[in-house]
Design brief:
The complex is a heterodimer. In chain A, helix 1 (7-23) packs antiparallel against helix 2 (31-55) and helix 17 runs antiparallel to helix 19 (409-434). By secondary structure, chain A is mostly helical. Chain A has helices at residues 7-23, 31-55, 87-104, 113-132, 136-145, 147-157, 162-190, 197-201, 207-224, 233-240, 243-268, 270-275, 277-296, 301-320, 325-356, 367-370, 372-385, 392-407, 409-434, 441-444, 451-469, 472-490, and strands spanning 64-72, 77-83. Chain B is an all-alpha fold. Helices cover 75% and strands 1% of the residues of chain B. Chain B is globular and about 70 Å long. Classes of the chains: A mainly alpha, B mainly alpha. The A-B interface holds A 71-75, 112, 115, 137, 140-142, 144-145, 147-148, 151-152, 155-156, 162-163, 166-167, 170-171, 174-175, 178-179, 181-182, 185-186, 188-189 and B 365, 369, 380, 385-387, 391-392, 395-396, 398-399, 402-403, 407, 410-411, 414-415, 417-418, 421-422, 425-426, 428-429, 432-433, 465-467, 470-471, 474.
């Protein structure tokens, strides 16, 4: 409780209310006011989430800060919130990223500023809702509702081909989630009328049913992650989205899918999860290796980073379906780390795009001569993306590879190739953008980053280094929850 | 033998409204064109009065009167209240529209109220004849309303189509009812149900009659393959009348189906639920797929109506209390959304200009963010995306369908509503992503603006707190049938 208000509700609703307030500042004459209010909302949203970190009981199993109130009696749906060591880091990541996004859009966005800022604040609140919902329908409502602001963000402030990208994004994800809705309703019926996730955890389900439900969940979550072969919407969405949209998409929305696997597929359907683990691992390895190769040949920076995101998210799904502690912990760390790293890379691309209005790598060259400070930050994030020790990118990938080694040498070997391939595409892109002679007169005229941009990149750099050098605060937070989850997955839920 | 005076109390709202229409018709003779507002005020007053009477005479138990030909039960009360609200909203939205097109005469209001009485009689029918009487009163008024602009070729064409196909449907319905009469020896809904229940009815004739009745229902609801009239009428009729046809009559049609299938023919439930599966599945497919190809928004919404009626049928065919209340909830929320969508279309229409092409919605967000937002809510709600009420409408129906054991049907419905999402998104895309082509100011009347706001926000508020509306529908169904 803070100021007598329930903590999780505050974390969810504060940004949403702030967003609505920002919306009321109206047209672009009040843009400075809208920006200021948005910043207050974003920073406030982060501040109210801090007690989650300080007050989370590391030793306690189950869900904390729980809130329970009846919502739709007709379907026995409750407004049931609660977090554990897995969801808390994601909420913090979300609140932190929102601040970065608001700052990053400060000058870039000049049209319909209030609507832009409000969309991000509302989106942030909705995603906090996804991470803390303990009721299936509540989860679904938040999960789906995130589509609306993102659809608008891509469609209104996006690039040339934004309409195609926005529609593809929306319809792709809607297909999966509608099937999940059917699965949820089915679970509601067989559990004797309960939408509570905790009740579903205890529900015995026959193997054939488990597999069907697993596939329904898979439809929603794999699209969101995205896993190969349903990843094609992401490389289309990213280049068209505005910088802030790309950051949120990569840093947070992809995590909704991975979180769904961890929260739903594993504990509700443990037997199907084990049975289909081979498939999931196979798809993850294809994501990791094949998508790396695809990334190398990209000519568009945003597309390249989008493919790199898919490849890194492959580590998350790989770790999730190894069913051992390093795998799962590594997966969660990778989620957080990827949030910072890919977010920061998209911010860097945004900085370049703002000056040159092109995403093509070939249009750049020799940026280091005109923008040395920026080049330094960019270097750090590029290294983190290729998994250099000392950055957050290394920690997650290394732990997942360790987990994979426990299961099979082959998995580990395949996954580890990314350390080479990832370095190849990231550093090659970096080399072509930053080093060499100044490519053209546009590059020659580029200004180095200002104080606002420096602040944004420095905040991200801090997080990347902190997790890379001392990941303990992150791991100790999730330790208990990960072990509890693994114990849960190990128990069969087939009816006797 | 004396003939005792029947208890008229249950029918009081209908009687009141009939008196008020007469008053309206007479006053209209003494009012000149400058003061047509009188009829408008009188019509709204009548609806409010009828709503009050309905509320005051509401009973938790069904009341039968007029030799059981008329019934007043909780479902009837609930549906009538929704009908009044819908008709009143239609009148408010269309006032300016009909004024600019020279339709603001007493006839418009009188016909609207006559149609309303017809709907109320349908909803409260306890006898096949009453049911038919209400249906004809409603549809005849609607035919006339469609043709109200008699110098407009498309409207006249639409009216003709509507009339011919509607008459055909009525004929089928009557034929089916006559066979049911032949099989059971009665036209009274309660008696028909009892005879079928006792197994005294002749089997083949009964099912044959049922086929015709279901065909008639399909026509009236606009379910595939009896949907041909829907797109033409929606497109051809003046938008105010399209809104009227698209809103309140759906509530009445729901009541009609409930009386006819659930109350009179529960013994044939296995037969009619199979037939409804076909109607529902075809409606979902054709409604959603055909809507994609439309460039006229009224026609697009017509196809969307067809697909939504498919969902309503899904709720009914599941054959459980939950299914019926889910279907009712679906109809009520559907009417709410339709009102918003057509309300915005009418706000955009000006003198001599019909905003009926999708193109007319381009850049609405820049011209008027508030109306664009309201339309956005309507579109997402029609697509069933949270946090709007459309999700819960779909959820309730799907839940009932899955509970009845038709998981495949639920998956089927979900896949086609995904296809449906595309054309709703296209409207959002036009409003938000595209630049406006015209920059005319949009200045609706304050009352329209207020009502549209309330109506649009209702989609959001019921989307966040759907419980009251769901409980309202569940109570109405539970009080009437079980």
């Amino acid at each position: 409780m803070i100021l007598g208000l329930p903590l999780l509700s505050t974390v969810i609703w504060f940004p949403i209310l702030a967003g609505i307030v920002v919306l009321f500042t109206g047209n672009d004459r009040n843009a400075p006011l809208a920006r200021l209010l948005a910043l207050v909302g974003a920073v406030g949203g982060f501040l109210v989430a801090i007690p989650l970190y300080t007050h989370l009981d590391r030793a306690q199993t189950g869900f904390q800060f729980a809130e329970l109130a009846p919502w739709i009696e007709r379907f026995n749906v409750n407004y049931h919130l609660g977090v554990d060591g897995i969801s808390t880091p994601l909420i913090l990541l979300n609140c932190f990223t929102t601040v970065l996004v608001v700052l990053a859009g400060w000058q870039v966005i000049q049209t319909r500023v209030a609507q832009y800022m409000a969309s991000f604040l509302i989106l942030s609140g909705l995603m906090n809702g996804v991470f803390s919902a303990l009721d299936g329908l509540l989860f679904y409502v938040f999960f789906e509702a995130t589509l609306i602001p993102m659809f608008i963000i891509i469609g209104v402030w996006g690039g040339e081909n934004r309409v195609y990208a926005a529609l593809k994004f929306f319809l792709y994800t809607l297909l999966g989630s509608l099937l999940t809705l059917v699965a949820f309703i089915y679970l509601y019926n067989v559990s004797g009328g309960s939408f509570s996730i905790l009740d579903w955890y205890r529900l015995p389900i026959a193997m054939s049913t488990q597999i069907l439900l697993f596939l329904a969940f898979f439809a929603a979550f794999s699209v969101k992650v995205p896993m190969w072969p349903v990843h094609t919407w992401l490389p289309d969405a990213h280049p068209e989205a505005p910088t802030g949209g790309s950051v949120v998409l990569a840093a947070l929305m992809l995590k909704l899918g991975a979180y769904g696997f961890i929260r739903f597929s594993l504990p509700i359907l443990p037997d199907a999860s084990h049975k289909l683990a081979g498939l999931m691992i196979g798809l993850s390895l294809i994501s990791i290796v094949y998508i790396c190769l695809v990334a190398i040949v990209q000519t568009d920076m945003k597309r390249l980073i989008a493919y790199s995101s898919i490849s890194h998210m492959g580590f998350v799904t790989l770790g999730t379906f190894l069913f051992n502690a390093p795998g799962l912990e590594g997966a969660v760390i990778q989620m957080v780390s990827h949030g910072f790293v890919s977010g920061a890379l998209f911010l860097c691309v945004g900085v370049l795009y703002e000056r040159m209005h092109t995403h093509l790598i070939a249009d750049y060259g020799g940026v280091v001569h005109t923008m040395p400070v920026f080049a330094a930050f960019f270097m750090l994030f590029a290294m983190a993306n290729s998994g250099l020790p000392g950055t957050s990118g290394f920690v997650g990938e290394f732990i997942v590879v360790m987990g994979a080694m426990k299961v099979s040498f082959f998995y580990a070997a395949a996954a580890a190739t990314t350390l080479i391939l990832g370095a190849a595409y990231t550093l090659w892109m970096y080399k072509r953008l930053v080093f060499g002679a100044i490519a053209n007169e546009h590059v020659a005229k580029m200004q180095d980053i200002g104080s606002r941009e420096t602040l944004v990149l420095a905040l991200a750099a801090l997080a990347v280094l902190a997790i890379g050098i001392y990941p303990f605060p992150l791991t100790e937070m999730m330790h208990t929850s990960v072990n509890e989850l693994l114990a849960h997955v190990a128990r069969s839920k087939l009816p006797l | 033998m004396t003939n005792p005076m029947p208890d008229l109390l249950p029918a009081l709202p209908e009687i009141f409204l009939l008196l008020m229409v007469s008053v309206l018709l007479i006053t209209d003779l003494f009012v000149d064109d400058t003061r047509r507002g009188v009829g408008y005020g009188l019509a709204l007053f009548s609806l409010v009065g009828a709503a009050l009477i309905t509320l005051l005479t509401a009973t938790p138990e069904p009341q039968y009167t007029l030799n059981d030909m008329f019934v007043d039960d909780p479902m009837a009360d609930a549906l009538k209240l929704a009908v009044y609200a819908a008709v009143a909203a239609v009148l408010v939205y269309s006032r300016e529209y009909v004024r600019l097109r020279g339709m603001l005469r007493g006839e418009f209001f009188a016909l609207s109220l006559f149609a309303t009485i017809g709907m109320m009689v349908m909803i409260s029918a306890g006898h096949f004849l009453t049911l038919y009487l209400g249906l004809e009163l409603m549809t005849l008024s609607l035919y006339a309303m469609v043709a109200l602009r008699r110098d407009e070729p498309t409207a006249v064409e639409a009216a003709m189509k509507y009339f011919v196909l509607g008459a055909l449907a009525s004929g089928m319905l009557l034929y089916g009812m006559s066979m049911l009469y032949g099989a059971t020896g009665s036209l009274d809904i309660g008696e028909v149900a009892a005879v079928i229940d006792n197994g005294e009815a002749a089997g083949p004739v009964l099912v044959f009659g049922l086929v015709f009745v279901v065909a008639g229902i399909g026509f009236k609801l606009g379910a595939v393959p009896f949907h041909m009239w829907v797109p033409d009428v929606y497109q051809g009729a003046p938008t105010a009348v399209t809104l009227f046809i698209g809103s309140a009559p759906k509530l009445a049609a729901f009541g009609f189906v409930m009386r006819l299938l659930v109350e009179a023919l529960p013994g044939l439930a296995p037969d009619w639920s199979d037939m409804l599966i076909i109607l529902a599945a075809l409606s979902l497919v054709l409604g959603n797929v055909a809507a994609i190809a439309q460039t006229n928004i009224k026609r697009m919404l017509a196809y969307s109506t067809i697909s939504h009626m498919g969902f309503v049928l899904l709720g009914i065919l599941s054959g459980t209390t939950d299914g019926f209340s889910a279907a009712m909830f679906y109809v009520v929320t559907y009417v709410l959304m339709t009102l918003v969508a057509f309300g915005v279309i009418m706000v955009l229409s000006r003198d001599g200009f019909e905003a009926e092409n999708l193109e007319d919605f381009r850049g609405l967000n820049q011209r008027n963010p508030w109306h664009a937002f309201v339309m956005l809510l309507a579109m997402f709600s029609l697509a069933g995306v949270p946090p709007t009420v459309g999700l819960y409408a779909k959820l309730s129906v799907l839940s009932a369908v899955i509970d009845a054991g038709y998981v495949w049907l639920a998956v089927f419905a979900v896949i086609f509503s995904l296809i449906g999402a595309f054309y709703y998104l296209r409207v959002v895309k036009l409003m938000y992503f595209d630049a406006p082509v015209v920059a005319t100011e949009i200045t609706p009347n304050p009352e329209v603006k207020l009502l549209l706001g309330v109506n649009g926000l209702a989609l959001l508020i019921f989307g966040i707190l759907p419980q009251p509306l769901m409980a309202f529908c569940a109570r109405a169904i539970a009080g009437s049938f079980f």
